């Protein structure tokens, strides 16, 4: 019987000399680049005595962190446990969620729990387990710039090694044939609320920081939650459960027309398949932009269990007469906002359909207003003249998840969760992570280390035939999957 815990090889990657080029450098270690690193760990050269793929990944944070401010007790992922880092591309990988449970001697409890959707805290623990076991990951390394070295036909990656306190400790440079950008998203604060969010005297915080400020928020006399997605619903529910009956003093505001459930029908979920991604990618730019706007309920709604729990909690507070002091109002936008006496917030509200306006005074605000893709321009400033852009100024990204560049750049820049405008609503979905990572590795190697399914949906998207699986393009070095 083999040890269920993967054993890192030594050394952790072959490109240990400063000038020896890597095959791949990943920038950012969130779930998506962690997925790529896990699947890359199983790829070996067909030549050079089966040397492993020289892949290394840099992350500025000191350790893996996945939305720590939203790991609310009882909150679950909105995708099944099979949507881990690797399973949907390689269920035999040592980095599966099930193998994580096996190493923790928790397979039987999980089996009897019959839990298809895992807790967020457990997913975070699983990812941290992978990040601590997997070789080639370098935390506390901030990538400062990426350039193309024409003489060596390689990318130069400049980074700063950070001390535990975040101070710069050393500078370094790596050379690589290819780049994988997984720098993730950043919290979005609407313009009217930015001055308040930056002011220390009033608790106006983004949901990303909710748990860090939860105790402070609960001391506020009145709390307002803004945002109708899953995060807003979970935070409203958590606050509601913590407030005294009849004295809840909560407001929940949303721009959407309703506190709507996420589309979770079985055929609806086929919008998160590789089949739909390929169909979407082939559409004209204007059509893609229109579709993304219309499909908000595919990825911005609330799961029905959370909606049910909120209603159950509100209903329970009517059993002895009266109504809870909780106001839920959709269809509302915040026009402007300001401080009152430096300790309170005044929100100026517009109701879209009624055409009415009102003011709401509150003591604390939680902004469950979502995330935006981090811009790539600063990091890739040295490559800007070589990057092709669409009519809106966004990078063009091909079906292999590569930035479209001029022929002068012979290496590839792959992107993870920065391609919603070209690949659709599935870009940030954890269920497509392993497939995208496998697609990248298949393209990078020019071989087929991870054979991908030719069909993934019962729905046929569109009338014009299109290839089910993208043709592989020749890579710089033949590589194959090690078995």
Task: Round the mean pLDDT to the nearest integer and report it.
Answer: 90
User: Roughly how many Å is the radius of gyration?
Assistant: 24 Å
The outline comes out as globular
Low-confidence stretches: 6-16, 473-483
H/I helix tally: 13
The profile of the biggest β sheet is: 7 strands, mixed
How helix-rich are the residues, as a percent range? 10-25%
Structural class of the secondary structure composition? alpha/beta
How many strands appear in the DSSP assignment? 19
Describe the model.
- With 483 residues, this protein is of the alpha/beta class.
- Helices cover 24% and strands 22% of the residues.
- The protein contains 13 helices and 19 strands.
- The chain has helices at 31-40, 97-103, 107-113, 120-133, 194-197, 210-218, 230-242, 274-281, 285-294, 296-299, 304-316, 420-423, 433-445, and strands at residues 22-27, 43-45, 55-59, 137-139, 141-149, 154-162, 168-181, 185-187, 204-206, 223-226, 250-253, 326-329, 332-340, 344-351, 356-362, 364-367, 371-373, 413-415, 479-481.
- Strands 1, 3, 4, 5, 6, 7 and 18 form a 7-stranded mixed β-sheet that branches. It has a 5-stranded parallel β-sheet with strand order 9-16-10-11-12, with helices on one face. Strands 13-14-15 form a 3-stranded antiparallel β-sheet, with no helix packed on it.
- A hairpin with a 4-residue loop joins β5 (141-149) and β6 (154-162).
- α1 crosses α13 (433-445) and α7 packs parallel to α11.
- The two termini are 18 Å apart.
